[in-house]
Give the backbone structure.
Amino acid sequence: MQPTIQSNKSVLPRLERQKNTLAKKVLSIKDEETIALLSSYFQDLVSTKRITKAQYNRELDAAEKAVNEGEFVTNEQVMKEMKKW
């Protein structure tokens, strides 16, 4: 939902604080895998290029392979790491 023009003035300072807080958290991350994950996530947010069905399937296959090989982080591990922020 888009804020109205009048309420936008009150939203901007809060938004800036939230962005600054998020930036500080990102800057404090010391784990390379977490940085790579965040980088990938942000790239996906700004990407407007559609991928082909074949590329989509390759990415799914690679993700399944990584999980099957134990390359993942559990929710508990993420929650534990978040408490350090």
Observations:
- The chain has one domain: 10-84.
- Helices lie at 5-28, 32-46, 53-68, 75-84.
- The chain has a mean pLDDT of 84.
- DSSP finds four helices and no strands in the chain.
